Amino acid sequence: MAREITRRTVLRGLGTAMALPALDAMVPRGAFANGDAAKPPMRLAVMFFPNGVNVSKWTPRETGASYTLPLSLEPLQNVKDEVNVFSGLTHDKARANGDGAGDHARSAATFLTGSQAKKTDGKEIRAGISLDQLIAEKVGQTTRLPSLEIGCDKGAMAGNCDSGYSCAYSSTIVWKSPTQPIPKEVNPRLIFERLFGDPNKVAEERDRAKAILYKKSVLDLVLEDAKKLNGDLGGADRRKVEEYLDSVRSIEKQIQAAERDTERRLPPELEVPDGVPGDFPKYVRLMTDLMVAALQTNTTRVATFMLANEGSNRTFPFIDVRDGHHSISHHAGNQEKLEKIAKIDRFYVGQFAYLVEKLRSIKEGDGTLLDSTMALYGNSIGDGNRHNHDELPVLFAGRAQGTVQTGRHVRFPRNTPLCNLYLSILDRMGLKEERFGDSTGRLTDLA
Question: Do residues 86 and 421 touch, judged by C-beta distance below 8 A?
């Protein structure tokens, strides 16, 4: 008979400690009969994208469950039943409110804080504590990492990046306090080492030959412990551990391949970026896999992913868009530019769809990882040409343990604060706050 093991059980080997996904053996006998004792922890995953959208190709015409996915949202087809499209939400504090230009900086700074960013490019930057960090203060004490912040664009925490606003505002969406922005990590190898350990450092600590152990996988180091654990698990849990280890191995191989690729392509006089794929779509998928792994293993319950810095002028030649994103977002009604914006919107929505599918594919308890994860996707600009901060493009996935009805287009009254959604998220994460940012209440049309 398989024995019970604790949620804190890890695989160890040569100093490496690898967290495990939730297993049936971690649930005390009889717990499923006791309601809450068997519930997996609630998580929050956030994806941010820049520059607004082509509104005409984004917003569904119908509301409710029988809506048709518009062009930009078509990548959601396979997960449509898991996702809500929200319309009518607003971030008033991303508006100028007397501060003039700088909508891109305010978009990122306000997105998770609901606060007006102080217009400065100096040391006295100020916004507000972000949603994820408020949650991390509460639930982060129970996990190894209170939160995880990742992205695909390096950012600066100083300098002038947007009409007198510090680069810190457009480079991060995470604020630990009103005066402390948190930079994101863009190197997948460094993220991997935070989650699973660094065999190279282990080798140094144990005075082993660096060249030998550097080539060993984290999984190689914990393999003996994994074999011992398998003897204590039932068949379903053994399969779950095997699938999880296969997933980690796949991430390792992606990182190693990316490092070899950059070493081949870059001129010798340039610094080789460790583990960052030269192929942007592969880069985004790898970072998404890492975020999911962090949630799956309960290494953290709060993760944010900034797909690009706000105001990003990235090009997308792989979808035949060679103009800079920010440049064409100022489309002035030009149909050619609008079509290119829609292509970019579709690409980014496809990355969110991948996140949702990944979360849904992982079994946890009687359901899936998605069942206990709230996944938020959006930004604080509606139309990049108008720089408006109402009618925001917002997607929300996950049933939040049965408290959210998904598969709908929900239109809220015009100028409903996005922070009302954040209050509803806080409720489901176990925080009972009276207000957040400029909230006026909770969203009432979620269940």
Answer: yes
Centre a 10 Å sphere on the Cβ of residue 362 and count the other Cβ atoms it contains: 21
pLDDT: which is higher, 243 or 96: 96
Does position 334 have pLDDT exceeding 90, yes or no?
Answer: yes
Strand pairing class (373-378; 43-48): parallel
Cα separation, 357 vs 284, whole angstroms:
15
d(CA 222, CA 168): 39
Q: Name the residue ranges covered by the structural domains of the chain.
A: 40-186+279-447, 188-275
Tokens of 439: 């909230």
User: How would residue 34 be classed by pLDDT, with cut points 50, 70 and 90?
Assistant: very low
CA distance 173 to 279: 24
Position 243 scores a pLDDT of 75
At residue 53, φ and ψ (nearest 5 deg) are -140, 170
What angle is formed at CA 328 by the lines to CA 326 and CA 330, rounded to 5 degrees? 80
CB-based contact 427:392 (threshold 8 Å): no
Phi, psi of 84 (to 5 degrees): -110, 135
* Between residues 421 and 209, the one the model is more confident about: 421
**pTM of this prediction exceeds 0.70:** yes
SS (H, E, C) the chain: CCCCCCCCCEEEECCEEEECCCCHHHCCCCHHHHHHHHCCCCEEEEEECCCCECHHHCCCCCCECCCCCCHHHHHHHHHHHHEEEEEEEECHHHCCCCCCCCHHHHHHHHHCCCCCCCCCCCCCCCCCCCHHHHHHHHHHHHCCCCCEEEECCCCCCCCEEECCEEHHHHHCCCEEECCEECCCECCHHHHHHHHHCCHHHHHHHCCCCHHHHCCCCHHHHHHHHHHHHHCCCCHHHHHHHHHHHHHHHHHHHHHHHHHHHHHHHCCCCCCCCCCCCCCHHHHHHHHHHHHHHHHHCCCCCEEEEECCCCCCCCCEHHHCECCCHHHHHCCCCCHHHHHHHHHHHHHHHHHHHHHHHHHHHCEECCEEHHHHEEEEEECCCCECCCCCCCCCCEEEECCCCCCCCCCCEEEEEEEEEHHHHHHHHHHHCCCCCCCCCCCCCCCCCCC
Using alpha carbons only, give the angle 61, 63, 68 rounded to the nearest 5 degrees. Answer: 55
User: In DSSP terms, which residues pair with 303 in a beta bridge?
Assistant: 45, 148
Average pLDDT, the chain: 86
Domain 40-186+279-447 listed as CATH 3.30.2320.30: no
Specify the higher pLDDT residue, 423 or 231: 423
Q: How far apart are the first and last CA of the chain?
A: 40
